[in-house]
């Protein structure tokens, strides 16, 4: 019998679904402090918000300045504030947007071997929108926790379930889906740029025989996808974060939030937190995609050994 290699058989939809969620959670564990620093920098300049009421403004300067200030003022645990909601988000969010991407792409190509850029973009938009519709409450809670100053006794949320209850009680169940519009826009952009760029870079490297389908190829493709995604998605990401973290009635909508930012802080406000965003998204992409590719192979090998008699 010819020896089995995991790469010889395409992974099933279930393998992709579970693998994507698991890989995304592992990536979040490594990069969560950078995401928290990004959120703090993005909301800096706002005069009020539900997660920081009762505290004077804290000035953050740069990625590592933000992290060191948080550790000094609030303690090291503040860097992982909102991690539980973050992992809940990734398990539901990444499983759909990444795990179903290839299946939806095949649906749009109707089984054709040729996969055009249009099919890739449509698949990215579709799975991104589906993921937001499912995971939006976890994203709202994650952002609220990350924006909340942990020092002092006047914390608004005292646990993940308490945050869900408090938001639903004070803002209604619609509060848990606050910012769905800008989040769908952001994730359509992120998904299209991230997955399509990763797909295209990886295909180009393999077709040109510059690399084989292994770790260096996955690393290069993921890093390139992270940079392109950060450049394109940053403005929408900042608006999404500001709007999700805003007090009820502070903005009439996401567009009003964007206009207020432009008027009060200028165009540069849309790229607040760019460096931590890039460091986070670049490193997250590398950890996630490399882990995802290895998990797919390991799970397919385990599946083969399970179904093949000795």
General shape: globular
Determine the fraction of residues in helical runs and give it as a percent range.
over 70%
Q: Could you give the distance between the termini?
A: 11 Å
Q: In this structure, how is the largest beta sheet organized? A: none
Subunit structure: Homotetramer. Adopts an asymmetrical dimer of dimers functional form.
Organism: Culter alburnus
Family: Belongs to the mitochondrial carrier (TC 2.A.29) family.
Keywords: Membrane, Mitochondrion, Mitochondrion inner membrane, Repeat, Transmembrane, Transmembrane helix, Transport
Description:
The N and C termini lie close together (11 Å). Helices cover 71% and strands 0% of the residues. The protein contains eleven helices and no strands. The protein has 310 residues and is mainly α. The model has no long low-confidence stretch (mean pLDDT 84). It is a multi-pass membrane protein. Homotetramer. Adopts an asymmetrical dimer of dimers functional form. Belongs to the mitochondrial carrier (TC 2.A.29) family.
Brief rundown of the structure:
By secondary structure, the protein is an all-alpha fold.
């Amino acid at each position: 019998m010819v020896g089995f290699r995991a790469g010889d058989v395409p992974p099933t939809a279930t393998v992709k679904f579970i693998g994507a969620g698991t890989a995304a959670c592992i990536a979040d564990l490594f990069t969560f402090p950078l995401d928290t620093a990004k959120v703090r920098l993005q909301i800096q300049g706002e005069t009020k918000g539900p997660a920081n009421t009762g505290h004077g403004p804290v000035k953050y300067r740069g990625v590592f300045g933000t992290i060191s200030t948080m550790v000094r003022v609030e303690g090291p645990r503040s860097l992982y504030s909102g991690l539980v909601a973050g992992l809940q988000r990734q398990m539901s969010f990444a499983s759909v947007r990444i795990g179903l991407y290839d299946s939806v792409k095949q649906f749009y190509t109707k089984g054709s071997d040729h996969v055009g850029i249009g099919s890739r973009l449509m698949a990215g938009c579709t799975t991104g929108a589906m993921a937001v519709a499912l995971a939006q409450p976890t994203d709202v809670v994650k952002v609220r926790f990350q924006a909340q100053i942990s020092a002092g006794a006047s914390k608004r949320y005292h646990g993940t379930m308490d945050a869900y209850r408090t938001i639903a009680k004070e803002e209604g169940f619609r509060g848990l889906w606050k910012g769905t519009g800008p989040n769908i826009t952001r994730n359509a952009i992120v998904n299209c740029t991230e997955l399509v760029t990763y797909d295209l870079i990886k295909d180009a490297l393999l077709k040109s025989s510059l690399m084989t389908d292994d770790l260096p190829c996955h690393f290069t493709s993921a890093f390139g996808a992270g940079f392109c995604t950060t450049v394109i998605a940053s403005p929408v990401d900042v608006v999404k974060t500001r709007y999700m973290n805003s007090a009820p009635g502070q903005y009439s909508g996401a567009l009003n939030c964007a206009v207020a930012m432009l008027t009060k802080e200028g165009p540069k406000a849309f790229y607040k937190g760019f460096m931590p965003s890039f460091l986070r998204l670049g490193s997250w992409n590398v950890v996630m995609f490399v882990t995802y590719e290895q998990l797919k192979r390991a799970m397919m090998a385990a599946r083969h050994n399970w179904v093949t008699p000795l």
